[in-house]
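Problem 12. The chain below contains 223 residues. Write out its predicted structure in token notation.
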Amino acid sequence: MGKLLRTGKILLLALLIVGTLVPPLSAEAALRRGSTGDDVRAVQKRLKQWGYYDGAVDGIFGYGTERAVRRFQQKNGLSVDGVVGEKTAAAMGLNLTNTVSSAAKPASGDVYLLAQCIYSESRGEPYKGQVAVGAVVLNRVKSSSFPNSISGVIFQRGAFSAVDDGQINLTPNDSALKAAKDAMNGWDPTGGCLYYYNPAKTSNRWIRSRPIVLRIGNHVFCK
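Solution.
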């Protein structure tokens, strides 16, 4: 009996030591239904990019996000619990504690998302051209032919090459953020255009058939 008792104490001590060496995943690092914030938005963007999620990229972990997470987990051989923990986040290529530098974010999620689109689609273009790209997104929001939200327009399937190739996830610079704010405040250098493209990079016959309104930098803008 004494020997068994001593063995039990040794095992308990070993477990305690292991517990101190391998800390559990913190509650803050797991996202589940009811979670909100930028980490949730990053998860939604990634799931939308890969076709698992078709809702708004609003930073709110609701039923639609949970369902998309479950589909992603099932497809990738993960535990299907609808919770974005360490393994699911790693499979998505995300770091839940620092998905995007919080210091670079403006107050409005829509402004930041628009800035991401501007930066990924038109970095290196003249400032007026960056504002024009943002204006095209906003003009689509107003049009009955497109989704009625900024996230809906940007993540509409096939709408922007930067979404297709993942560049939408890049962190926008100050110029893109300022351009997004100017566009949101009503500056539209395009006069209501709904499309733009780079003639040197686009061979699509349909977009080339649209009436061109103006050229800014490498982009032409059309209706």
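Discussion. The beta strands are 195-197, 212-216, 219-222. Students who got a different answer should revisit the alignment rule from Section 12.3.
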